[in-house]
Amino acid sequence: MKKLKEFDSEVWQAIQDENERQQFTIDLIASENITSAAIQEAQGSSMTNKYAEGYADRRWYAGCKNVDDVEKLAVSRAKEIFGAEHINVQTHSGSQANMAVYFSCTKPGDKILGMDLSHGGHLTHGFGKNFSGLTYDVVHYGVKEDTGHIDYDQLREIALREKPKMIIAGASAYSQIIDFKKFGDVAKEVGAIFLADIAHISGLVAAGLHPSPVPYADFVTSTTHKTLRGPRGGLIMCKKEYAKKVDQVVFPGIQGGPLMHIIAAKAVSFKECLTDEYKNCQKQTILNAQAMAKELQSRGYVIVSGGTENHLFLVDLRNKGIAGRPTERLLEKAGIILNRNIIPFDDRSTMEPSGIRIGAPTISSRGLKEEEARQIAAWIDTVISSKDDESVAENIKKDVHELCKKFPIPHLEN
Ligand code: PLP
Fold first, then answer.
1. Does 124 sit in the ligand 1 pocket, CB within 6 Å?
2. What is 40-273's CATH number, 3.40.640.10, 3.80.30.20, 1.20.1250.20, 1.20.1050.10?
3. What pTM does this model have?
4. 247-277: per-residue pLDDT in tens?
5. Which atom of ligand 1 is nearest to the CA of 96?
6. Domain at 277-412, CATH class
7. pLDDT, tens digit, 9 for 90 and up, residues 144-163
8. Does 223 participate in catalysis according to the annotation?
9. Cα distance between residue 74 and residue 117, in whole Å
C-alpha cells in the first residue's frame, strides 16, 4: 500500500491498525469471515472504475466486454454451486437482495410471515424500523420455549390463519438445521411465495453440510460475505419464472450501476467454494462451533436450543449474573471479539440483551481446530467468572495474542 501511505497516511494508518486488530484478536462474530488475498486483489482492481448498468451482453454503456466476462463467470459458478435456475449477483448487500425479492412479487401493505427478530430472524424479515416492517403487514413465527427449535406447527397455524403473500425462512441467530421442505409445504398449502434467506448458512449449503432450500423455494437470497467467505455483497437465486421481474427490480428498480469489482471478487470466491480446501473449512467450522458450545455447556453455560448444528450458537447468560453487553466489553479486553444478542423469550431489551452470539467461521478460516476452540471457550468462561477483576481479561489477552501468532492471516502480515 505504498501509494496510499504516501497520499493519505491517515487512512493508511487506520488500515494498518485494522490489519493488526484482525491479526491479533479472536473473531467470533458469526457473520464475519476472512477473504483470501485473491478475493481482495479482485476487489481492489480496475473494475471499480467501470459503469455497467444492465446485465451481461445487455449494458447501457460501451466497453463492458471484460466486466461481462466476470459477471458471466460469477453467475455460472454460483449455478454450479447451488443448482438454481436463475441467479442475480448484482445486489450490493443481503438487505438489498431481500428488498429486490419483496418488491418483485409483493405490493406495499401485503402480509409477510417471517421469523421474529428476537427469536433469531433478521431485520429485513419484518422489523418495524426496517423497510420490510414499514412497507408490509408483518406477522411472525418463532421458536418453541422448551426446545429453542423453530415451531413448525405454529408456523403452519399462523400461515393458515393469516394467509401471507410471502413466507420467509432463514435467520441470523439460529443454530439448528432449518427444514426448508416443511416451509415449502406450508407455503404451497396457503398459496404463499416462499423465500429462503440463507445469508448465514450459505457456505454450509455450498459445501453440502446443510440441506439446500433451492428445490423448495421460489427465491433464495444470501449475503456473500458470511460463511460463504466472499466479498461483502448479496446474491439472489430464483425459479426461471421470476427471473425477468427480479432482475428488473434490482436494476433499474433499486440499484444503478453494479459494483463490478465486487462481482469479480464474488466470481473468485465462488471458484473457492468449489475446492476441497473450502469444503474442509466449512466442515471444520461446524466442528469448532460444536467444540466451543460443548466446552461452555460443561462449564455450566446454557446454550439456546441445546447446542449447534451449524456455524454459530447463542449463550443464555441469565444463570451467570451478567448480561450480554458487559460480557461483550469484557471479552474485547481479552482480545475476544463477539456480539451481544437477544435470546428467545428474553426478559431484557434488544439493546441490553441476556445473551451473546458465538460463531466459528473466522477462526476456522485461519486454521484453528477443536483443541483451540475448546481453549477459547475456556478463556471465555474464565473472563466471565472473573467479571469483577478486569486484570484477568487483560492477562488472557496475552495468551490470545500468542494463539493468533500461531495461526496468522498471511496476507494481513505487515
Ligand atoms: N439476512 C440475514 C439472515 C442476515 O443475517 C443478514 C445480515 O446479517 C442479512 C440478510 C443482511 O445482509 P447485509 O448486512 O449484507 O445487508
1. yes
2. 3.40.640.10
3. 0.97
4. 999 999 999 999 999 999 999 999 999 999 9
5. 16
6. alpha beta
7. 999 999 999 999 999 999 99
8. yes
9. 31
